[in-house]
Amino acid sequence: MNSRNGYGIQLFHKAEFLTKIENKMKKNIFCLALMVLSVFAGCNSAKVELSGKVTYTDGTPLTVGEVCFETDTYMARGSLKADGTYTVGSFSEKDGLPKGTYRVYISGADKLVAESDGMQLPQSLIDEKYRQSTTSGLMVNVPTIDGKYNIKVEPNPHK
After folding, report:
1. Does the reported pTM lie above 0.85?
2. How many Cβ atoms from other residues are within 10 Å of residue 46's Cβ?
């Protein structure tokens, strides 16, 4: 090729550019693979089964909602059944959660209430403090001695 007309230089720069891009892509793929492996390794190792029951202070079960467990980097939840029981899951319904200390709160514990205009609005069944991990006052160290974490909640005082 005639390098005087610039084609040889363009091809050289193009080949060099493609090599650099290829190397960057290899590095990015390698980093991505490491991240995925570390996430799966961390999430699948040492999971502990945890279940329990949520009741009002009078012993009546809370039958709707989810019990949520969170740390700064992890979250798991268990759906409440008709008898107030739940089993915690991270990626599937009953796969447990890693060992650690968790802040606990309850979400979705609502019923629909008809307003005078016919609209139905959700009304919390529990005291609002249980709806956020920062105000619920609920914490658990996993694993527990018996694999259970029972919770007593106060009803919504405004209903």
Report:
1. no
2. 12
